[in-house]
Amino acid sequence: MEEGIIKSFIAEWLTNGLSKLFERELPLPLDKDYVITVTGERRSGKTYLLYQTMKSGLASFNEILYVDFQDYRLKGIGANDLDKVVLC
Question: Where does the AAA domain start and stop, copy by copy (predicted)?
């Protein structure tokens, strides 16, 4: 994958930030010692729950990057390309 595509994707994220949110009453239990998996029906609000979690955690995390792997620009991205995302 071309590095310029990855850089433009990251620049767009930094410029636009998070979408507007409808706050949910159920927060995700965050703990640095555990991996949290969010599952559910299609269109049930999983992504926006993650957005809400990122928004509430922006003060406590140095850097957050949300990558939507269904974005057409990332078609064909592979495991080796993820290093480029981190290094950009």
Answer: 34-81
